[in-house]
Amino acid sequence: MAVLNLRPLAGGRILRGSQPFGLDAAATSGFLAAHGIQAIVDLRSELERSLVPWLVDDDGGPAAVVPPAVELIHNPLDPNAIAGSLQAVETAEDLGELYLGWVRIKPEWVADALRPVARGKRTLVHCSLGKDRTGVVSAVGLLAAGGTEDQVVADYAATTANLPDVLKIMAETWRLSVPSTPAEYFSPDLMILQSPEAAMRHFLAGFAQEFGDVRGFLRDAGLTAVEVESLENGA
After folding, report:
1. Which tens digit of pLDDT belongs to each residue from 56-85?
2. The pairing of beta strand 71-74 with beta strand 39-42
């Protein structure tokens, strides 16, 4: 298996994707080298990371698989603990509003995810499916790099074609690790497991209304003016 739902953004400086499904040591090294990845920003919770870990020793010991030149950054956001209820997401607008809640409460989370990109590293940004948390960070990063709203929406909606494969593998992963997980937890009929254009358009409209310019948002969230300019120049 591999990192799924994978594609480049912002002139190739950002790669967005899923968690590393089924990568052994050799495959991990090969994947990172093949894509020239210099940093990994892992947006998953501690529980999610424990189910599908990167094969890396955080102490840099002999078991390390991720090369020392690749920076592994844990920047978690647990959707169950931060804002809103996943179970309450019934419409595309609800999904977009959930995303807005994340950036309202934790703007620094977005800035921290984009910092290695701003510092010139080709960066893989991922969560579990590579859809929601990854979608929010990717949207802000793409806008900061000069992307248009239509480009952001198209990138977000591109996940739709990949969801059947990702959800199938995700369900298998959870059933192995947590056998009590209900099958309907990964039903493609759930809005929380879809990526409709309307959800991202709702997020972008709300973001513009509340925060205005994306670059100002990132400066307020903790990036320096130089880092924000670097994101723009990487388009």
Report:
1. 544 444 444 566 689 999 999 998 887 667
2. parallel
Residue 74's beta-bridge partner residues? Answer: 42
Residue 9 in contact with residue 140, Cβ under 8 Å?
A: no
Range of the domain at 144: 7-229
* Count: domains in the chain: 1
Strands 7-9 and 14-17, bridge-based pairing:
antiparallel
**Do the domain assignments include residue 234?**
no
Burial level of 138, CB count in 10 A (0-12/13-18/19+)?
buried
Query: What confidence tens digit (pLDDT) does each residue in 199-227 have?
Result: 999 999 999 999 999 999 999 999 999 99
Q: pLDDT averaged over the chain? A: 91
Residue 1 lies in a domain: no
Does residue 10 have a pLDDT over 50?
Answer: yes
For residue 88, give the amino acid letter.
A
pTM to 2 decimal places: 0.93
CATH number at residue 153: 3.90.190.10
The tokens describing 120, both together, are 């010139």
Do 201 and 153 contact (CB within 8 A), yes or no?
A: yes
For residue 44, being part of any structural domain is answered with yes
**Residue 34 within a domain:** yes
Q: CA 165: distance to chain centroid?
A: 17
Distance from C-alpha of 88 to C-alpha of 105, rounded to nearest angstrom: 18
Q: What is the DSSP string of 56-118?
A: --TT--TT--S-TTSEEEE----HHHHSS-GGG--SHHHHHHHHHHHHHH-HHHHHHHHHHHH
**What is the 3-state composition of the chain as percent helix, strand, coil, each rounded to the nearest 5?**
55, 10, 35
